[in-house]
């Protein structure tokens, strides 16, 4: 697909052998190395994912999670890979109340859920991969042992928590503060993590000769063996997570949630993630002539923003783990409901959080959200892009191969700045439990064995019934806003993947944050200044509390596609200087 010429920071890559887009260049090239070795998209994604856990430890880790959406050419099917571990068996609202807490902390061990990332990658390799476990782990082991260049963002994040590490987290200090705060561009190693990967591989290979047996052997070593034992010892007396929690969990394959939009069918995770909010936005926007509005016009920005407010309000009122609670997803995605909700969009920006009543079901918002939305002035919010000491970001990887497979994966959690490194294994546990509410009776209320309602949102789209596009981004609550804009730029306005990613971006902070301390900034609209002074002035006239950020600040999207002529394409966001696409 191509449209009128548009500025791009890089060319859209085009080839026929394979393409990989990732939030770090070392991950992208490691994935490409798997394709060059004869592997497929699943081998490539897993290799890239493990490298991301080494080189971006402030963005993702093997103690975090890794949800994915994949298209397998072998069975001509789209699968969601459940890479999100549940709350521990001892995690109850009563327990937190006894500690005097009304929110799950965003920092420390109390927010740890079962680590899902390693199990997720093992499931993908077992079900769909082709290379050996040694092949896939080799790049990550190399960078953990030999070292990797420190990113500016990694230096800044370690610097922000260095004093805390030195005084309270000695297991973290012995990894990331050797010789002081590592400087950008310098070499950093993680020998503890390298040894963990080496032992997982060794125990996998000792289990038997076949790749499937080796993968299962490595999985058992993590969830029932030495890793689980290390986590159990480290958490004893300080956290709720135990070795038994790890041993009782396995990732699974799920059916995606789907929505048609023109020639496309978009596939997302279930409402245990925020993925369906992408579909709800599209359902609302289907009632407008977006092409006539024009890309980047004030009318388009206004309508997209107001529809986002409505969709995210429903996220707060209805989304949760569908294995535990009933989510009215069919009603939320119905054309009739979209028509009803669309009538709320006016020419003036709304300052209210307005969930609907899908199928007649009344909304239930946390009491804390109601107070926060009613009582805060969006102008009092934090500066866009400000660094939080306790919150990391996320990574993403997309792959398309010559065999017809597509992978979209969003590894996250296990951030070095939010939890101490588990002694002896070289990685941190996740803090995804902070996305539960400690109020009874809500869709996202904390309960043992329940998955938190996360922000992680990989995306895959079919076109004319054929697998076409895999895409995603880091960004927390902004993920399904930034990727929506890139998708609209491509699907509606005809921009190639790189131009669609590079186009000026915006997002709303109207909805409550999914992260501790759950701030909300009603009516705050954050825009890149490249939208233009005229557009920004018109948005203010319509009542939006506009916050201008820099020209290139919002997003870290990557995307890959496979067109009907067999060409593979890729783009990666230059806003994140380390994000790259590779291919041939």
Report the CATH superfamily of the largest domain.
Answer: Gamma-glutamyltranspeptidase, large (L) subunit, C-terminal domain
Return the CATH class of the largest domain: Mainly Alpha
Question: How would you sum up the global shape?
Answer: globular
Total number of distinct structural domains? 2
CATH fold descriptor of the largest domain: Serum Albumin, Chain A, Domain 1
Structural class: alpha+beta
- What proportion strand? 5-15%
Largest sheet: 7 strands, antiparallel
Counting copies of identical and different chains, the oligomeric state is single chain
Going by CATH, the architecture of the largest domain would be Orthogonal Bundle
How far apart lie the N and C ends? 18 Å
Helix content: 25-40%
**Radius of gyration computed on alpha carbons:** 22 Å
Please give the order of strands in the largest beta sheet.
1-18-17-13-12-9-8
- Helix tally equals 20
Mean pLDDT: 93
Q: Layout of SSEs?
A:
Blueprint: E1 13-15, E2 18-22, H1 25-36, H2 41-55, E3 68-72, E4 77-81, H3 93-98, H4 117-128, H5 133-146, E5 148-149, H6 152-168, H7 170-176, E6 187-188, H8 191-206, H9 211-223, H10 226-235, H11 243-247, E7 253-254, E8 257-261, E9 264-268, H12 276-285, H13 290-293, H14 298-318, H15 329-332, H16 335-342, H17 367-375, E10 397-401, E11 406-409, E12 459-463, E13 466-472, H18 479-491, H19 497-502, E14 506-508, E15 524-528, H20 533-541, E16 545-549, E17 558-562, E18 568-572, E19 580-583
Helix pairs in contact: 1-2, 2-4, 2-5, 4-9, 5-8, 6-7, 8-9, 12-14, 12-16, 14-20
């Amino acid at each position: 697909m191509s449209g009128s010429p548009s500025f791009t920071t890089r060319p859209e890559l085009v080839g026929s052998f394979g393409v990989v887009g990732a939030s770090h260049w070392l991950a992208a090239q490691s994935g490409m190395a798997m394709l060059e070795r004869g592997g497929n998209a699943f081998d490539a994604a897993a290799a890239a994912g493990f490298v991301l856990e080494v080189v971006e430890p402030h963005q993702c880790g093997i103690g975090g999670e890794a949800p994915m959406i994949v298209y397998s050419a072998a069975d001509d099917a789209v699968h969601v890979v459940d890479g999100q571990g549940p709350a521990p068996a001892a995690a109850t609202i009563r327990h937190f109340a006894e500690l005097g807490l009304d929110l799950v902390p965003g920092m420390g061990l109390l927010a740890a859920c079962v680590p899902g990332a390693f199990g997720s990658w093992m499931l993908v390799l077992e079900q769909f991969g082709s290379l050996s476990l040694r092949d896939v782990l080799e790049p990550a082991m190399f960078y953990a042992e030999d070292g990797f260049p420190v990113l500016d963002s990694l230096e800044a994040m370690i610097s922000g928590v260095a004093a805390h590490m030195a005084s309270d987290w000695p297991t973290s200090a012995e990894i990331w503060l050797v010789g002081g705060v590592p400087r950008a561009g310098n070499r950093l190693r993680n020998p503890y993590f390298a040894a963990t990967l080496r032992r997982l591989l060794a125990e996998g290979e000792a289990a038997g000769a076949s790749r499937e047996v080796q993968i299962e052997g490595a999985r058992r070593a993590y969830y029932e063996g030495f890793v689980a034992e290390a986590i159990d010892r480290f958490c004893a007396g300080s956290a709720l997570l135990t070795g038994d929690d790890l041993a009782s969990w396995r990732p699974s394959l799920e059916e995606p949630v789907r929505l048609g939009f023109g020639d496309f069918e978009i596939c997302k995770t279930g409402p245990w993630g925020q993925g369906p909010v992408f579909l709800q936005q599209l359902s609302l926007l289907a009632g407008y002539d977006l092409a006539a509005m024009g890309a980047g016009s004030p009318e388009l920005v206004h309508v997209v923003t107001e529809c986002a407010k409505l969709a995210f309000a429903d996220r707060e009122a209805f989304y949760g783990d569908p294995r535990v609670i009933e989510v009215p997803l069919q009603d939320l995605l119905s054309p009739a409901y979209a028509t009803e909700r669309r009538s709320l969009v006016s020419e003036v920006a709304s300052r209210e959080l307005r969930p609907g009543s899908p199928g007649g079901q009344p909304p239930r918002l946390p009491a804390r959200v109601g107070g926060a939305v009613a009582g805060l002035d969006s102008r009092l919010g934090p500066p866009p892009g400000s660094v939080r000491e306790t919150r990391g970001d996320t990574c993403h990887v997309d792959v398309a191969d010559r065999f017809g497979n597509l992978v979209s994966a969003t590894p996250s959690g296990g951030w070095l700045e939010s939890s101490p490194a588990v002694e002896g294994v070289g990685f941190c546990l996740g803090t995804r439990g902070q996305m539960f509410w400690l109020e009874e009776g809500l869709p996202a209320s904390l309960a043992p064995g329940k998955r938190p309602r996360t922000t992680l949102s990989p995306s895959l789209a079919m076109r004319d019934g054929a697998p076409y596009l895999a895409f995603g981004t880091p960004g927390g609550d902004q993920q399904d806003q930034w990727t929506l804009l890139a998708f609209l730029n491509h699907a509606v306005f005809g921009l190639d993947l790189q131009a669609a990613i590079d186009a000026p971006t915006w997002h709303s902070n109207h909805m409550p944050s999914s992260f501790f301390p759950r701030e909300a900034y009603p009516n705050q609209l954050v825009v890149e200044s490249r939208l233009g002074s005229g557009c920004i002035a018109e948005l203010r006239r319509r009542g939006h509390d506009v916050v201008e950020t820099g020209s290139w600040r919002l997003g870290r999207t990557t995307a890959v596609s496979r067109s009907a002529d067999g060409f593979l394409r890729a783009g990666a966001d230059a806003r994140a200087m380390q994000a790259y696409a590779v291919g041939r």
